[in-house]
Amino acid sequence: MEPIWIDWAKRLQALAQTGLTYAESPYDVERYEAVRHIAAEMAANRSDVELPRVLGLFSGDTGYATPKVDVRAAIFHNGSILLVRERSDSRWTLPGGWADVGESPSACVVREAKEETGYDVRVQKLLAVYDRSKHPHEPPFPFHVYKLFFLCEIVSGKAMRNNEIDDIGFFTRDVIPPLSLTRITAQQIDRMFEYGEHPEQPADFD
Q1: For residue 204, which of 147, 133, 130, 95 has the smallest C-alpha distance?
Q2: Could you tell me the fold of the domain covering 68-205?
Q3: Parallel, antiparallel, or unpaired: how do β-strands 204-205 and 80-86 relate?
């Protein structure tokens, strides 16, 4: 669960972003920009990120504020789950990433799995829709994020690294490597194993 100050900062930023999208009066624009600045100050004050960078992140997002979408593929083989190691932090996660505009969620996760593992996969089922802020991810993220997890099966291809992924492997439930906590948590991995054993369970949410 994220600290309450992160929730406050994200909600203020969302209000400011949406307000700036529709504001017509220069006075309203000025007020919403001030709200955005307060949100950025809150985030910078409680983190190791400098204020100009936070302001840049907030200012770069425009339009009506909605959650961002992250997709992840849970792929099993002989009771083991497929993980990839990110070059950025040398830690492991499920294949996946940000959803792209113009693609359905299932198409996004198929593409991400191919790009990060080399495998062509088929989506079998939506397993979970999680609110990132309600799970112990580290560090906190400046935007609201929904994480979609899909059960997938390999149909062809072979393991292949890319410029973001430097290792790929299957791991059993009791031998999980150090995880990239900004992307995945141990509890989420454990829940995916439960789905791997009992895929008939209903999808999780929140």
Answers
A1: 130
A2: Nucleoside Triphosphate Pyrophosphohydrolase (3.90.79)
A3: unpaired
- Cα–Cα distance measured from residue 185 to residue 176, given in angstroms and rounded to the nearest whole number: 11
Query: Quick count: other Cβ atoms within 10 Å of Cβ 98?
Result: 12
Query: β-strand 80-86 against 68-77: which pairing, if any?
Result: antiparallel
Spans of all domains in the chain:
4-60, 68-205
One pLDDT digit (tens) per residue for the chain, 206 residues: 778 888 999 999 999 999 999 999 999 999 999 999 999 999 888 877 889 988 888 888 889 999 999 999 999 999 999 999 999 999 999 999 999 989 999 999 999 999 999 999 999 999 999 999 999 999 888 899 999 999 999 999 999 999 999 999 999 999 999 999 999 999 999 999 999 999 999 999 99
Helix 4-22 to helix 51-60 angle (10° resolution) is: 50
